[in-house]
Amino acid sequence: MKMIDNIKMSNYTLVKKCRICGGENLHLILDLGKQPPANSLIEKSQLDLSEPVFPLRLFWCNDCFLVQLLDIVKKEFLFKHYLYMTSASKPIVEHFTKYALDIHNEFLKKQENPFVVEIGSNDGSLLRQFKKLGSCILGIEPASNLAKLANDSGITTMNDFFSLSNAKKIVESKNASIVVANNVIGHVENLHDLMEGIKILIGEHGVFVFEVPYLLDLVKKLEFDTVYHEHLSYFSVLPIINLIGRFNLEIFDVQKQTVHGGTLRIFVSKKNNFKIKDSVKKFIKLEYEFGINNIKTYDKFSDDVQNLKNKIITLLHKLKNEKKSLFGYGASAKGNVLLNYCNIDSSILDYIIDTTPLKQGKFTPVTHIPIVSSDQISNTENDSIALLLAWNYENQILDKEHDFRSNGGKFLIPIPEPIIK
Ligand code: TYD
Ligand code: ZN
Fold this sequence. Notes:
Blueprint: E1 12-14, E2 26-35, E3 54-61, E4 67-68, E5 71-73, H1 75-79, H2 90-108, E6 115-119, H3 125-132, E7 136-140, H4 144-152, E8 157-158, H5 164-171, E9 178-182, H6 191-202, E10 207-213, H7 215-220, E11 233-234, H8 237-245, E12 249-257, E13 263-270, H9 278-290, H10 295-321, E14 326-329, H11 333-341, E15 352-354, E16 371-373, E17 385-388, H12 394-400, H13 402-406, E18 410-413, E19 419-420
Parallel strand pairs: 6-7, 6-9, 7-8, 9-10, 14-15, 14-17, 15-16, 17-18
Antiparallel strand pairs: 1-5, 2-3, 3-4, 4-11, 10-13, 12-13, 18-19
The structure holds thymidine-5'-diphosphate and zinc ion.
């Protein structure tokens, strides 16, 4: 395995079978090169040390249509100390407030002692909303720093990965009325163990509600930078039906959300518990029309992503030659993928601003760009350009930074087509 010669093999495995159907009819659809884990910001003292990089490639299963990574970086290596904090992004906190209220009104309001379990509960932002609405809550969060933060702020959190065995422990006291999981099932390697655990946890009448970034948005809007080692699966409705059908579960509703560049909220329960809404059929039809079952859809996607990369690089070099001062906005994980794929380092971006206290003072992996506090934006030169690495918050950020913009500062939005605003 020459390709991964500078990789610590103990942290890496290459799988050869589809995560849902076990099929081996897997096609490479996008190669993003060798990349460091996208959330692995480094300390100043580590700048001279060698950094681990792993192949980052997207494959498509010709049997169940799941788009997925087969290059697996050990999860303990990726998630034990996690810097992504839900509460640092105001739009997400707003999204969660409404989310909890919607679920409460639809499923929990009339129940006595509702119990909400969240898988991958991060710093407890969503559960806090359910708690306010009167539910008992339990978070399960593998990152010890986040689980501690949540527990310290009154959100009871188990510091572990969710698994069938943890589900069994929880139901010894009670079944969950709702199990919620946002942007986590794409992180899970063993989807069968996950679904088995969820099936036990929701019992006869509970509902599993989860949000996943939608593959169709990724492909349409060329969101290649949302592909990174933590995200093992890139879901659409058809492969999910295939997965949950194996556990006597069914989808009874699908709703589209705008967060994270296009997200699906999916509602699952035991078969025949709920009337299946028309939305489910609508999404299935949409996916076939889109061509999720056709390799040509992905061939075009791959060509478009490579063209986009060339456009971003050309534009940044042009701006640099014009002596513009360039910095990054939002030290997101997706930002690191974009920086590494397009070879943008500290010779191009002076620094990246970010509101997350845990990220400030650190450096981006491999590209070594310093991360600074968001106050820094008030010290920028008049014709500076901010490369928006958190493009999922474009509206909020452009609104928030009106002073920067009215002083002549501009934003470069990299995807789906680089534009300066
Ligand atoms: P995010 O898009 O939430 O996630 P990912 O890491 O999965 O790609 O990352 C956005 C980053 O941008 C996060 O570190 C917080 C930061 N941020 C700001 O600095 N300012 C803002 O106004 C917002 C909304 C986010
Ligand atoms: Zn498959």
